[in-house]
């Protein structure tokens, strides 16, 4: 499974952190049943805005210092993935238009919403812009891959 980091996210994180995030996310997605609760928590689709929902974009909560003790307590009681929440949220989406078999569609890491991830997700204008940016990045990846630098795992 190929994990691609959007160019805006890669610019904001820097190449090394972007690659580390892609590798961690790849490990999580390849063994989600055993990997949630380590770095990534609740993972779900969006209910709004429409452009984000139609793109099939999702978001996953990430561990951060403020939730370490709570996540450890959930881990200790073998709690469900839904209990692992935080205000650090990674937005991602599958890229079905890229020419791969359906089970191998690449996933693009779109943006990291932190701090105040939930507040940022409630910003309809900002989320619409993110949905449009995801569509543009997915198109750019499928068309310009040979000539542009991309970070992926």
Characterization of the model:
With 153 residues, the protein is of the alpha+beta class. Helices cover 44% and strands 19% of the residues. Strands 2-3-4-5-1-6 form a 6-stranded mixed sheet, sandwiched between helices. The chain starts with a strand and ends with a strand.
Numbering strands along the chain, what is their spatial order in the largest sheet? 2-3-4-5-1-6
> What structural class do you assign from the helix and strand content?
alpha+beta
Query: Runs with pLDDT <50, length 5+?
Result: none
Oligomer classification: single chain
Q: What is the first-to-last residue Cα distance?
A: 8 Å
The number of E-state strands comes to 6
Determine Rg (CA atoms, Å): 15 Å
Percent range for β-strand residues:
15-25%
Order of helices and strands: EHHHEHEHEEHHE
Largest sheet: 6 strands, mixed
The shape, in one word, is globular
User: What's the average pLDDT?
Assistant: 90
The number of distinct helices, counting runs of at least 4 residues, comes to 7
Q: What portion of residues is helical?
A: 40-55%
């Amino acid at each position: 499974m190929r994990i691609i980091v959007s160019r805006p996210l890669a610019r904001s994180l820097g190449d090394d952190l972007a690659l580390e995030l892609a590798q961690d996310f790849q490990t999580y997605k390849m063994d989600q049943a055993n990997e949630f609760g380590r770095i990534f928590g609740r993972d779900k689709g969006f209910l709004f805005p429409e452009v984000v929902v139609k793109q099939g974009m999702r978001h996953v909560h990430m561990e951060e210092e403020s939730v370490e003790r709570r996540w450890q307590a959930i881990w200790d009681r073998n709690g469900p993935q839904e209990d692992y929440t935080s205000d650090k949220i990674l937005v991602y989406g599958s890229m079905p238009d890229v020419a791969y078999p359906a089970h191998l569609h690449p996933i693009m890491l779109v943006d990291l919403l932190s701090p105040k991830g939930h507040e940022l997700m409630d910003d309809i204008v900002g989320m619409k812009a993110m949905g449009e940016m995801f569509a543009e990045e997915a198109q750019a990846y499928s068309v310009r891959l040979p000539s542009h630098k991309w970070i992926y795992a």
